[in-house]
Amino acid sequence: MEIDQLLNSTGPPISVDLPNSYVVVPSIFFWILTPVIIHDIKTSRLSPLPWSTLMSLKWFVASLLIIDRLFVFLLAVWESVFEHKNVTADLFIFPFFHSFTLLALLIATNETRRAGIHSSGCLFCVWMLFAVFAAPEFYQWMNKGSQPELVARIDFFRYVAYLTYFPLVVAEFVLHFVSDPFPMPKTYQNSKCPEENANFISRQLLMWFSQIISLGSKKTLETEDVFELDSQMDQEYLKARWKTEWLKQSEKAHERQIKLDEKRQRSGTGNEKAPLLGTFNNYGAVNQNDADRVIVQPSVIFTLWNIMKWELLGGSFIKFLSDLLQFANPTFLNFLITFIETPDAPLYYGIALAIGMFLAGQAKSLFMNTYFIVMTRIGAKIQTMLSCAVYEKSLLLSNSARRERTVGEMVNILSIDVDRFRMITPQLQQYWSSPFQIIVCMVLLWQTIGVAVWAGIVVMISIVPINICVSVITKKWQIRLMKYKDERIRLINEVLNGIKVVKLSAWETAMEETIEKVRDKELKMIKQSSLLKTFADCLNVGAPVFVALATFTVFVLIDEKNVLTPNIAFVSLSLFNLLRGPLMMAADLVAQTVQLVVSNKRIRTFLCEREVDVNAIDKEIRGELYQNTVEVHSGSFSWDLAEARILSDIEFLVGSKELVTVVGSVGSGKSSLLLAALGEMEKICGYVGVRGSVAYLSQQPWILNQSLKKNILMQADLNDVLYKKVVEACALKDDLKQLPDGDETEIGEKGINLSGGQKARIALARAVYQSKDVYFLDDPLSAVDAHVGKHIFDNIIGPNGMLSHTTRILVTNCTSFLQESGKIIVMKDGRIRHCGTYDELLADDEAREYLQEVDAEYEQAQESSGEESGDEADDVLPGAIGSSSRMSRLSKLSKVSRKKSRSSIVEKKKPDALITKEEAAVGRVKAGIYMLYFKSMGIVKYVLPYFVAVILNMAFAMARSLWLTAWSDANIDMIHPDTLSVGTRLGVYAAFGVTEVFFLFFSLSLLLLGGVAASRNLHRPLLHNVLRNPLSYFDVTPIGRIINRLAKDMEVVDLRLSSSFRFLVISFMNMMQTVIIVTYTTPLFIVIIIPVYIIYYFVLKYSIKSTRQLQRIASLTRSPIFSNFSETLQGISTVRAFQWNDEFIRRNDMHLNTHVRCNYYSQMSNRWLAIRLELLGNIVIFAASMLAIFGKESGITAGMLGLSVSYSLNITFMLNMFVRTINDVETNVVSVERIDEYSKTKSEAEWRMEGYVLPQAWPIGGAVNIEDYSCRYRDELDLVLKQISLNILPGQKVGVCGRTGAGKSSLALALFRIVEAAEGHISIDQTITSHIGLHDLREKLTIIPQENVLFANTLRFNIDPKSQFNDQQLWAALENSNLKAHVETLPQKLESPVAEGGENFSVGQRQLLCLTRALLRKSKVLVLDEATAGIDNRTDAMVQATIREKFADSTIITIAHRLHTIMDYDRIIVMEAGRIVEDGIPGELLKNKNSKFYGLAKSAKIVG
């Protein structure tokens, strides 16, 4: 029917002859959906549902419908055959087709029940269509029956059949509203996942999710409150599907590889003569012909496609319907404007258009939400499958594959690359959807304005290359930005890791300036790239303005007949607005695609990496033929097949229950021998066999972040008797008493709150408790002192220990236990030099010499080490440390770790929790945090001008729209024709448009510059305060947590927060704009919008708590995944040795499931809110349309209606955007809160005391006086120094000694006020140190600390960070420290770069650089804190000689572990339990054989 006829009609336009239309469309729709129904049935993993009353009713009603339709069919047959009537074909075909479809529907209903599907969406939609399409015919028959003149001609039997049919169809439709069975027995309810039980309507409107929203409005949601995932998202099911498909892809890739290799071989030359050389690369030799070999790898994307294709296609279909529906509004707008322009158009037609617009908008909202739900589910499944695949692959990686990647890189694959797959999933359909939307848009525009559309297209296309150029430039700048960011974080990391040295040397200001310089470069790059991006954003946002201007100009100028009517103006504008979405999405999609391509390659390469050869070690037990528990024959091993052998010609046998000790000098290959037997090294040749279950204790103890008891038990059940026996045997009983919660005390990351000795003993206890057959023990006695070592050996390892019934291979250099070994293996240079009993080795001169070397090395190490070491080290394979000198570096690492101790371990009493857990924030962010951010931006300079610019931008935008309204209305007003020329109209319109875009750019630039100012003003006090924190703060706060504030939170402030505020303001202003415009055109609108906004407010208030908390929980549950992954990678050799792969996979699955679950329901909360807000938005559109229709009589013009409705069309999007940006702002502003929290922590004393100026030459003499001094590390801890009184004369050389925990290092720290006095005081040259500034004090004293901290900067910076000395002074200091010759050989001399951690300098050279720093200062008071503990004897002698010469007139206080270094000192102080127990001249103290000093000297074998 034509529109003109429709407008002039008087009744509803329903045909009186609609035969069979109610059958065709729903039936065809059912058959189209049949494959989807079959797919749902086939893939369902639910248990069959019982036969219920509801199912009986469905069957009963459906059976009546089939009978009814068959009756109509048989009636036609009767009339044709028996009554010989001329019956048309449709009366046969349609009833039969209808009956057949209904029968199929009945079968489908039963099959869905058997598949366990509670409510089928497909069947619901089919019955809904049947009911909807039956309504017109029902109207037709009722119309006939109600008109007397038509009753006589009525077909009575068909009339009765239809009157029966319609109520039955409606009844069947109603029966599908509820889930089956109804009411649902508890046995069939999945209370943990209501989504699985929900009916179709509930799933569409997310009514099942309302209980979480309700709960969240009453209390703070916890992880336990979140529902479980449904069976389709079950982890085990998804993992099984991934493995099946990945295996298929791998096999296909392998087949393609064989074909390619055969083709390449045929095309190559020389392979026929020497086929072996062409196919094998023995001993790492590289065949040059392999350089051009194409490696075929299985595809991750194809694997995911094969698993997800039906769901993706379903999502595509839903997106297609949604895309079509978004073009309904411009079409309805066109009809509405025509309705207003037509004076005598019937009112019902206008109302029908408004209802149609509302229904189309609501249908589009539902389709879009369903689409996002489907794609969110797909994204969650992809995240689950890829995360599990990456984690499980990491457990199987060969050592050579692991060496190519750091732990951080592998964590990035899991955290960033996998997440990119999840993030792009909702956007995937845009690859076809964006072009489709653009094409439809162009077609509709062509119909509206003809060829003028090309002007708009040209403008839009011209913006594309600008966007591309901006993308290219910003990408380059982004790379530079990341480089600066990485450099800043690296510097911060180095400073925090070396914070003790930084504070002792008073270098905080120098480090702060260095970091701030890099920060300035970073902010400059942020400003540049953001300004450029702002320019591009303005072009994109202003595109509709320029496009409309160009199109309307061309339209009115190319032909005088072309008049800009409201239809043309506002329909075109709405279409141009629709065009902006896909164009902007396309640019974003390209960026995401580039990232995805990189991530896809990284994941694919990782999943195709070489795995550990499980066949390298023969683990079969074959009875009597294999008597030996461990045997290696002619074995050669390396870390990588392409590298030289580390172990060669290894031959040894270990019998059952035998104790074999492996000894050898540093770097001889002891640890490698154990790892080779475990299969962790690449076996080049030979045979390795290990019989029975294996336990492995790594050289660096691997401790997990869980309770001490769980660290020992792992996955074994608790045997209380065995557990207590193991704890006792490992000398852990006393430690458990000291720990606040005993064995339930949670151990921090990498055992941070344990000493090295405690970690070693816990790891040993774990190995013993597992009760394995074969024990590989890598130097377990190195971290404990002699008496603890003897206790462990006697009770565990030795012939009478707990492991005496097992086979033990022990690596140690402690020769006192060798006599009790059944066999001793002596290693040197990667070979077994000797193997035999203790007596056999002593009889061999060469072997005896080796043993003496080893013994000397061990004694030297023991002499300089305490029992406890606080070093944190990872259980990493030696191959991960570096390619050169791997064995020796590992050995040195273990040796140094024995010598280092943490000053914070001296206390016996510990607080309840050393490291507190980081909790998720709760509730709203305080208003003060927002004000802090605005003040940081500059309220007067940037914030207020920004709001003024935004308001002006909005004002000019409204003025442009009103001008267009007046212009278009003037063109259709025949009574008062337009008096203004086209040029004037265009000029004013262009002026408004350009000014609007200018203020947009101006406002965005102000916001951007304000954001950069805020970044600078928040970072500087944060960094300053972190450096002002006392050293004790870093004991209880993990460095990672501090770096998180300076890295992740700062990144949010730098890059996200200002744009979140921008979108919040834009969405709010646009909503206000819509209200103002619609109220201006139809004042009654205010009556409707106020209650709508009130409802909106309460819906938002009701749901925002749940939405916000779910987002926080989702963020919080990410961390355990990566922590567990990092821990697993760090202890991978231990995990594999104990065969704990399944246990750690279970842990990963648990953490991953928790995160995916929380993240999925966090997304659902957004969908829940969106559905309700979009309903409100559609009500606003409906209200605006209805008011315009009813306002027709009051004189509303077509232009006004077009303006009003076109503005209201944006309200749904803006409401959603407003809510989303409120969430974004709240989420992101938490970063400001976290930064502010760390900017206000308790600081140490002032660096400089105002008004107190020390003499330049202070201290002159160097006299140190300590009076009744006591101190503690933190307020809640016991005193570590107790009532110390000491008077050191100027120039005196004092040695401080004592056992571990005596308080020696605490005394040194007290001098520098690293710890403050609890009582008493310290004075230097009669000046009380607590009365002067910290920097005033620390700059005047010098310490050569145990930690030789170097920074990744120039050599000059490392020696003189404050730039206080000239080149001549620097070279003189280098010469005095015996480093000048080495530095002169470096290409850049003093400007030579120092690698991270000083890796390009040897340990000795690093210590000499620390000496150089001390020589430059040349203080009157010098403290040596175990300064030579980590260097060899030769360097030690050199350092001692230099100190004696250059500091001859200075007071020297030495914290000694090597007693021989202080034997010639003027004075010896012996400390015990924080007190001075002996004080005197060395010779005098040694005369007293009962003295503590004599005991220490005897232990060190200085005296007999």
TrEMBL record:
ABC transmembrane type-1 domain boundaries: 313-595, 947-1227
Pfam families in alphabetical order: ABC_membrane, ABC_tran
Chief place of localization: membrane
Compositionally biased intervals (Acidic residues): 856-875
Keyword Repeat: yes
Molecular function, one GO term: ATP binding
Transmembrane intervals: 20-38, 59-79, 91-109, 121-139, 159-178, 317-340, 346-367, 430-446, 452-473, 534-558, 943-966, 986-1014, 1084-1104, 1169-1190, 1196-1219
Domain called ABC transporter: residue spans: 630-854, 1264-1498
Compartment annotation: Endomembrane system
Keyword line: ATP-binding, Membrane, Nucleotide-binding, Repeat, Transmembrane, Transmembrane helix, Transport
SMART domains, per the entry: AAA
Classification via PROSITE patterns: ABC_TM1F (PS50929), ABC_TRANSPORTER_1 (PS00211), ABC_TRANSPORTER_2 (PS50893)
Coiled-coil spans in chain: none
Keyword ATP-binding: yes
Membrane-topology annotation of the record: Multi-pass membrane protein
Family from the record: Belongs to the ABC transporter superfamily. ABCC family. Conjugate transporter (TC 3.A.1.208) subfamily.
Protein name: Uncharacterized protein
Source organism: Caenorhabditis nigoni
Gene expressing this chain: Cni-mrp-3
